[in-house]
């Protein structure tokens, strides 16, 4: 059964059956997003309930049997918990393939969806599925999959969206993405952002362009803070 397979083994149909509803989270229509948020809340409640049941079974079996990890009730509760997680966010996009070609992994559209949701509707993402470490790890993962033009285009859009807004936790990770999909198109978008009326856009886009010109310079917190300090000083 697909429901019992690993997240890296499922086909596109299995992913769509579990998480196809989540594309409503990035819809322009507020009503569509609202319906998707209701679905998400229901899915997250099922995760919470399944986790509580799993923990209850675990506490009982560990005191009653010698090896609780082989107890059928424990295994069943764990499976139900895992199944609930895979139908929710952010849990459903965890555990992508480590060595496989990420560009053809059927879970990649849902990873990109989760990142696009955070980029386009950050307040809704924060309220309903905030997971900074997941955001960071997914950004680092997608850098391994920029070969396809459609993937490059999506990642380029994400970089542009992010540089135009106020800085959010882990946004600096998008420098990795910019370096992976560097192109004349991306640099043109960043150039235009540096002429924006928004000081955030000017700062962020300038920083990314500066690092694109310096591929050997590490994207560290110190380098970022030095850049920001220089930008602030230039405005004084």
| Global outline | elongated
Q: Whole-number radius of gyration? A: 21 Å
> Helical residue percent?
55-70%
The CA-CA distance between the termini, in Å, is 63 Å
- Measured by DSSP, the beta-strand proportion falls in under 5%
**How many helices?**
11
| β-strand number | 0
Our count of domains comes out at 2
Structural class: mainly alpha
Mean pLDDT over the full residue set = 89
Segments where pLDDT lies below 50 for 5+ residues? Answer: 1-7
For the largest beta-sheet, the strand count, sense and barrel status come to: none
The helix-strand sequence is HHHHHHHHHHH
Please summarize what this structure is:
The chain is an all-alpha fold and 236 residues long.
Mind explaining what this structure looks like?
The protein folds into two domains: 1-107, no CATH class; 146-236, no CATH class. The longest helix is centred in the first third of the chain and has 35 residues, at 30-64. It contains eleven helices and no strands. It is 64% helix and 0% strand. The chain is mainly alpha-helical and 236 residues long.
What is the fold's blueprint, element by element?
Blueprint (H helix, E strand, L loop, with lengths): L11 H8 L10 H35 L7 H14 L22 H13 L1 H8 L2 H11 L6 H15 L10 H7 L3 H11 L4 H14 L8 H15 L1
């Amino acid at each position: 059964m697909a429901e019992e397979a690993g997240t890296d083994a499922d086909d596109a149909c299995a992913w769509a059956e579990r998480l196809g509803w989540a594309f409503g989270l990035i819809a322009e229509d507020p009503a569509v997003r609202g319906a998707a948020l209701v679905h998400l809340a229901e899915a997250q409640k099922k995760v919470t309930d399944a986790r509580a049941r799993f923990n209850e079974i675990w506490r009982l079996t560990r005191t009653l049997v010698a090896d609780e990890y082989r107890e059928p009730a424990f295994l069943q509760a764990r499976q139900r918990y895992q199944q609930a997680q895979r139908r929710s966010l952010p849990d459903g996009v965890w555990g992508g393939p480590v060595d496989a070609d990420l560009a053809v992994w059927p879970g990649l559209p849902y990873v990109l969806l989760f990142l696009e949701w955070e980029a386009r509707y950050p307040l809704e993402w924060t309220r309903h599925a905030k997971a900074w470490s997941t955001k960071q790890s997914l950004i680092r993962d997608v850098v391994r999959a920029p070969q396809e033009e459609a993937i490059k285009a999506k990642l380029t859009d994400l970089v542009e969206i992010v540089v135009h807004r106020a800085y959010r936790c882990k946004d600096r990770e998008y420098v990795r993405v910019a370096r992976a999909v560097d192109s004349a198109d991306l640099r043109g978008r960043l150039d235009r952002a540096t002429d924006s009326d928004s000081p955030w856009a000017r700062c962020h886009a300038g920083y990314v362009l500066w690092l694109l010109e310096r591929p050997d310079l590490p994207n560290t917190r110190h380098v970022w803070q030095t850049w920001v300090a220089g930008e602030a000083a230039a405005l004084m």
